[in-house]
Design brief:
Layout (H helix, E strand, L loop, with lengths): L7 H21 L13 E5 L3 E7 L8 E5 L3 E8 L16 E8 L10 E5 L2 E7 L17
Antiparallel strand pairs: 1-2, 2-7, 3-4, 4-5, 6-7
Length: 145
């Protein structure tokens, strides 16, 4: 039996509310050169052995991406600096500044075996499940009937 995170729906709701406020704030200051909070799409897949996290980070350099693992979560932080602030923009939609995302898993992960790659603006993180968290077949003992 697989137990899901009971707070997943609240996390999703929080994400959508943050997007709503970010979009409203961005439209108010469109074209100005103030740093705005950046959001990025995340996909999380799971199989018996690992979680696979993909996050869109176009325009970032891999040197400005940090990944921190915890017992059952991973945090991604990325930073992109603004272009020359002295430029006069007619329209400015590209965001800059710091991006932070956290992904919570339903089981523990093995941080020592995690790997990450950044290709064509997509960060892919392989988060192997801890050995004691992986499913295993349990033999049934007893008399034959």
């Amino acid at each position: 039996m697989r137990l899901n995170n009971p707070f997943a729906e609240l996390t999703t709701l929080e994400h959508y509310i943050n997007e709503l406020f970010d979009d409203a704030f961005n439209s108010i200051y469109q074209g100005r050169t103030i740093p705005l909070r950046r959001k990025s799409a995340v996909d999380v897949m799971e199989n018996d052995n690992e979680y696979l996290v993909r996050i869109d980070l176009p325009g970032y350099s891999k040197e400005n991406i940090d990944i921190t693992s915890h017992e059952s979560s991973v945090e991604i932080a990325a930073n992109r600096t603004a272009d020359d602030e002295r430029e006069l923009y007619q329209l400015r939609e590209r965001s800059f500044g710091e991006l932070r995302r956290a992904v919570e898993f339903s089981t523990r992960i093995d941080a020592e075996k995690m790997t990450a790659e950044y290709v064509n603006g997509v960060l892919t993180i392989h988060c192997p499940k801890a050995v004691d968290a992986q499913p295993r077949q349990i033999p049934v003992l007893g008399e034959q009937s």
